[in-house]
Amino acid sequence: MTQMEWNRRSLLQAGGAGLMIAGLPGLAAAQTPKRGGKLRIGLGGGQTTNTLDQTSPTFASPNERTVNYTLFNTLVEIDPDGKAIPELAESWTIDPGAKRWVFNLRRGVQFHNGKKMTADDVVFSLRRHSAPGSRSGAQGMLRDLESITKIDSHKVEILHKTGSLDVHFLMSDYHLSIVPDAQTESNGVGTGPYVLQSWEPGVRFRGTRNPNYWKADRAFADEVEIIVVNDDLARLSALQSGEVDVINRLDPRTVRLVEAAPTLKASIAHGYGYYTVNMRTQVEPFNNPDLRLAFKHLVNRQELLDRILRGYGSLGNDHPVSSKLPFFASSLPQREPDLDKARFHFRKSGHSGAIPLHTSPAVFSSAIDMAVLLQAQAAPIGMEITVQREPPDGYWGNIWMKKPFHMSYWTGRITTDIMLSTGYSGTAAWNETQWVNPHFDEVLAQARTEFDETRRAGLYAEAQSMIRDDGGVMIPLFNSFIDAARKAVGGNLIAPNMELAGGRIAERAWLG
């Protein structure tokens, strides 16, 4: 079998996967981009602990992701249809077995400081996430890479230990943004559409258009300002009054209000994001698998969907793979509330006493409401849950992955394998529940290298089943991404993997 090459006009068909690698995402024919003005984004999900450092273990908030894609590029971009397309990598080749990948870099790209981007920058940017002492959230994704090396000034070789069909998708992750070689200071210097002018973590960002930006058909506004407004009503009010042009995380209860306004529009994407209630499996009381099962069986997910999301989402089944993703385990029965089973496992666990559930609006706007509903749903079997309301600022540093019972939120990931590897493998930096199952890790490794699509689907289904029945996470809902904007804002604002056009709104939107 000869070496296979993919470029922007080619179709990847390996192991039954069909992924078009095309040019940059096209704009709707009816829309005519306009240049100029200041794009103002009102953003929920910011904290004073936010950073520009992609290797930070807490680099995950909407504020960080959106600012990141405003300043930086990755090797691969996810287009509005969820396809992997070239970005800083102009094309790539894959050897048979998918162990060896070669990324051919775009020439003539400049960093904000005038330095030309080369393979040295790419190698440094990727290696730093798995360097000794790194606590990066990308560690789990990169652990199966054997090496990242420079072939020449514009070619980088990535060797995967066992082979993977998802390496190009991996290269689109926001952690893996390209920075100048040997840059240890998180100063915002990237190759992206806007140049940093000011940055107040968790408060405000301002950037001006990169005059040397290599994408001629992107970054239409002269200036971008991101203002953190964590309160939902205040954020909507800012949009209604014209103080901002776009907002994220529109409360589902206000969607109809926005759609009825003559100057506003809602943007709804049915994607991969989901909510989690994390039960840390290595500490009491959830080191008891029966207590975990009791909680999973008692939850009424439909009530949560109706009352919390007003139907803007779908039911979760205690594993992190969206029904929109390939290899979703559709054969797994949807978990319904079963108080008899819940009561059986609760009694078997022998647990008594209150269990504090830590949550905050930092997780999502109705997180406290969800916790209160879960508290009420647990009461009939005698499980006493107390809701611990934590302040938004500092939640991800002080509560997340630290408390035995706490809530969190994931935007999801672009493939099943990346999602499972990032949050659920035994060595993943973001394994929120400390759940370690060697068989799960073995199955995941097998699936990653299985080119037969039917067998691969079976392995991923087994992995999802193990998380569902043995893991420490309860996943009740997958949410829709609901943003809102003035109707004068043009461009494709939807992406399946993240709010605000996948975090890339600064370069994809324009002002009419």
Structural class: alpha+beta
Strand content: 15-25%
Can you identify the CATH class of the largest domain?
A: Alpha Beta
Major sheet attributes: 10 strands, mixed
Q: CATH superfamily of the largest domain, please?
A: Periplasmic binding protein-like II
- The tally of beta strands, per DSSP, is 23
Explain this structure.
- With 512 residues, the chain is of the alpha+beta class.
- It has 16 helices and 23 strands.
- Helix 13 (438-448) runs antiparallel to helix 14 (453-470).
- Strands 4, 11, 12, 13, 14, 15, 16, 19, 20 and 21 form a 10-stranded mixed sheet that branches. Strands 1-7-8-10-9 form a 5-stranded antiparallel sheet, covered by helices on one side. The protein has a two-stranded antiparallel sheet with strand order 2-3.
- 26% of the residues lie in helices and 24% in strands.
- Mean pLDDT is 91; it is low at 1-30.
- It folds into 2 domains: 1-14 and 35-245 and 488-512, 3-Layer(aba) Sandwich (D-Maltodextrin-Binding Protein, domain 2), CATH 3.40.190.10; 272-479, Dipeptide-binding Protein, domain 3, CATH 3.10.105.10.
- The radius of gyration is 22 Å and the shape is globular.
